Amino acid sequence: MILRPPLGDQGQTLPIYIWMTGILLFVAFAFFAFAQAASARNGAQSAADAAALAAAQESRDELLLGLETSLGTDDDWLDWLTGDLLEGTGAREAAGQLAAENDAALEGFAPTEINGYPGYRVEILTNYTVGDSVVPGTESLRAQAEATAVIEPRCDFDVDADPAKPVELDCDGESVEIDPDDFRPEDLPDPSVLFSVHLAE
Predict the structure, then answer these.
(1) Which of 76, 86, 110, 122 pairs with 183 at a CA distance of 20 to 30 A?
(2) Which is more confidently placed, 143 or 134?
(3) Burial per residue of 7-22, b for 16 or more beta-carbon CB atoms within 10 angstroms, e otherwise
(4) Domains of the chain by residue range
């Protein structure tokens, strides 16, 4: 005699299979939604970093131009090497331009100071959204991020140095001599030798 399982047991397997498949699909879509959000956050942070660095690099160029202009005509030219005369007139515009190039908008911008060095803090908001997902509201959610960049003078010199005479600079181990009476703009080293631009830790 052959025993057969009740017919009702076979019918119970299909609903469980469908239920488990639905759960797995939902979990997969949820992970995809988190991946979308993480990608948007990473894009926002990259845009914020780029905008902050652009502002700082613009100000570094301003410092170099001020140094070139003042050499031979201004006894305060050494102050340009310390960053004390920085005004940052084009910094905000440079930050906004880099944010736009990374599909974001500049939401906040402020000069700041890190460890005594000048810098800029920026906040951006992406123009794109996280996108449609199983998580409600993501289709209109945009990513935000902030970053701070610092302009750090790299050159040391004798505080008692006479600005009317040649001055020896020690720029992180690289020796640079500037003679205000015999100066040409091309004599200056690369801006990165005189000033370091980097994101704040």
Answers:
(1) 86
(2) 143
(3) eeeeeeeeeeeeeeee
(4) 12-199
